[in-house]
Amino acid sequence: MKTEDIDGTILETWTIEEVARAWDANEIVLIDVRTPQEYMFEHIEGALLLPMPFFKPEKLPGQSDKRLVIHCGSGVRSEKMARAAIAAGIGRIAHMEGGFGAWKEAGQPYIGTNMATGAPQAVTR
């Protein structure tokens, strides 16, 4: 995990392996800030969709039970939203390095779209 101190608040950048381990152990809430279209085409099963244009960091729940980890397609939007959350007073926030593209490249499971039927399907490697 990489960390950056932003005026006394720590921005955490988690690796795919760290996110996958915490996700499997039900220790985090994963927030996807991609577009609804991106999410519908493929997403991490159980991740919550909160598209970047509608992201209101002051409305995020506290993190007393589970850490919030934000992700997007490549890590750019999620870092931007994590920084917005810190600016809004969120004391602990993390984002996933490399985003959903890195998640898929690492062979982690996700929900994709069956191109023959258009139906969602589990993708595992």
Structure notes:
Residues 24-112 form the Rhodanese domain. By secondary structure, the chain is of the alpha/beta class. 27% of the residues lie in helices and 29% in strands. It is built from four helices and eight strands, in the order ββαβαββαβαββ. The strands form two sheets. Strands 1-2-6-5-3-4 form a six-stranded mixed β-sheet. A two-stranded antiparallel ribbon has the order 7-8. The longest helix has 12 residues, at 76-87. The mean pLDDT is 94.
SSE layout and pairing:
Elements: E1 2-6, E2 9-14, H1 16-24, E3 28-32, H2 36-41, E4 48-49, E5 67-71, H3 76-87, E6 92-96, H4 99-105, E7 110-113, E8 120-123
Parallel strand pairs: 2-6, 3-4, 3-5, 5-6
Antiparallel strand pairs: 1-2, 7-8
Domain Rhodanese: 24-112
GO molecular function: nucleotidyltransferase activity; thiosulfate-cyanide sulfurtransferase activity
Protein name: Putative adenylyltransferase/sulfurtransferase MoeZ
